[in-house]
């Protein structure tokens, strides 16, 4: 195991240094103390932590939710059931978003069909629909 500068950590985790600094500000990764050399040294474990954050983001979890998951992960009273409940809550939220997006899409399809794509802008049925 090696300690990593922020640049090496960013390269290994495939993020930029500003992302690491942002995660530090959000409390998602720890900011190591600055030694006399002036360069903070991150443990190799920080790569795994950033990978966890990235994967959780890909699954739709917000940074706040990810922070909660990370806190639960180190809490000895947390059970797998606690994580499952949070995951199922996230699934429900995603299903609601999908319903909303489908409604939006259907409304856009309807107004798009009403427009021939010809004529003056003052008679555009899409713009008229948006004004209602």
Beta-strand content: under 5%
Radius of gyration: 23 Å
CATH fold-level label of the largest domain: Multidrug-efflux Transporter Regulator, Chain: A, Domain 2
The shape is elongated
End-to-end distance, in Å?
A: 62 Å
Order of helices and strands: HHHHHH
CATH architectural designation of the largest domain: Orthogonal Bundle
Helix vs. strand class: mainly alpha
Work out the count of structural domains: 2
SSE topology sketch:
Blueprint: H1 6-13, H2 17-25, H3 45-58, H4 63-74, H5 80-113, H6 125-131
Short account of what is shown:
With 132 residues, this protein is mainly alpha-helical. It has helices at residues 6-13, 17-25, 45-58, 63-74, 80-113, 125-131.
Characterization of the model:
This protein has helices at residues 6-13, 17-25, 45-58, 63-74, 80-113, 125-131. Helices cover 64% and strands 0% of the residues. With 132 residues, the chain is mainly α. The protein has two domains: 1-78, Multidrug-efflux Transporter Regulator, Chain: A, Domain 2 (Orthogonal Bundle); 93-132.
